């Protein structure tokens, strides 16, 4: 489905005095036929402006461009059932998730050849074995990952991991720090908030751990806690800044996990999702004593 955004200048005059001007503003619109009056109303809603007396739109163009989300245009189902979108990396033998951390070893425990000796003629089975650390591929962090006495994989309710209403925050190219100003336009209460940075394009390469990797700031994490987010995910190497300058403080992990908000790291494929109007699942097995574990992350989208 083709999506559109308007590019325009606007002058906002407030009924109680004062004004606001924007130049080259870009905003999701329902279609190329949007009028100036409709665009003005979308702008006021998107910015959450009160006491607006008049909005003057100038230099307007409409371009084909994927929606970025916000308070303007809601995602509308187009009918015809639903589709599932894969959002997790494939776990393979020896893969690198975090540089310097061991990759998984995948071997046979029971081969098909050996199994033929145990079963009736024509009957065979295969059982594989995997040895890995919990932080492999796309995985979820639970509160016990950060805090010793907090809930582990067995203590997180399914309604915090599965079939969550969700939204995507499109992080502008070249932006490292995702702070509360980038998050403020979104209604996140009770939702999985997925930060789409595009950094998953570097997964499995040295560039994935480069200092330029995007992350969520402590202030941004605190805003998500205050706003009531149910889960937070990112398609970068870590939800926190991993550079030496950050000194290993991990404020995003600390704020989110202290509030009982699960974190899903190393997502992929977020570019295939609409801004809103889909459900998100990233549920691990119920393993006692573990704070992190790989997940099969996916979205359910009305098609």
- CA-based gyration radius: 23 Å
Series of H and E elements: EEHEEEHEEEEHEEHEHEEEE
- The number of E-state strands comes to 16
Strand sequence of the main sheet, in spatial order?
Answer: 4-16-14-8-10-12-13-7-15
Low-pLDDT ranges: none
Distance between the amino and carboxyl termini: 10 Å
Indicate the proportion of strand residues.
25-35%
Largest beta sheet, briefly? 9 strands, mixed
Shape: elongated
Residues in helices, as a percent range: 10-25%
Mean pLDDT: 93
Tally the helices: what do you get?
5
Structure classification: alpha/beta
Question: Quick gist of this model?
Answer:
This protein is 13% helix and 29% strand. By secondary structure, the chain is an alpha/beta fold. The strands form four sheets. Strands 4-16-14-8-10-12-13-7-15 form a nine-stranded mixed beta sheet, with helices on one face. A three-stranded antiparallel beta sheet has the order 2-1-3, with helices on one face.
């Amino acid at each position: 489905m083709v999506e559109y955004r308007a590019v325009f200048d606007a002058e906002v005059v407030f009924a109680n005095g004062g004004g606001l001007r924007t130049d080259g503003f870009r905003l999701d619109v329902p279609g190329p036929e949007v009028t100036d009056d409709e665009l003005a109303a979308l702008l006021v809603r998107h910015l959450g402006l009160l006491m607006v007396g008049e909005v003057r739109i100038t230099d307007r163009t409409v371009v084909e461009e994927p929606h970025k989300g916000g308070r303007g245009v809601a995602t509308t189902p187009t009918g015809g059932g639903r589709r599932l979108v894969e959002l997790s990396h494939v776990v393979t033998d020896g893969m690198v998730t975090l540089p310097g951390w061991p990759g998984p070893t995948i071997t046979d425990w029971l081969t098909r050849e050996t199994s033929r000796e145990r079963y009736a003629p024509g009957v065979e089975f295969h059982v594989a074995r995997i040895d890995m650390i919990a932080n492999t591929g796309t995985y979820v962090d639970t509160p016990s990952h950060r805090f010793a006495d907090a809930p582990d994989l067995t203590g997180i309710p399914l309604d915090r991991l599965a079939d969550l209403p969700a939204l995507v925050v499109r992080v502008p190219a070249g932006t490292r720090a995702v702070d509360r100003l980038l998050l403020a336009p979104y209604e996140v209460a009770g939702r999985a908030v997925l930060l789409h940075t595009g950094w998953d394009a570097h997964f499995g390469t040295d560039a994935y751990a480069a200092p330029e990797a995007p992350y969520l700031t402590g202030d941004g994490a605190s805003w998500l806690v205050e706003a009531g987010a149910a889960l937070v995910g990112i398609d970068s190497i870590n939800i926190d800044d991993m550079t030496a300058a950050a000194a290993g403080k991990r404020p995003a992990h600390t704020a989110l996990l202290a509030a009982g908000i699960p974190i899903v790291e190393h997502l992929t494929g977020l570019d295939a999702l609409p801004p809103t109007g889909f459900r998100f699942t990233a549920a691990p097995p119920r393993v006692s004593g573990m704070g992190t574990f790989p997940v099969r992350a996916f979205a359910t989208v009305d098609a």
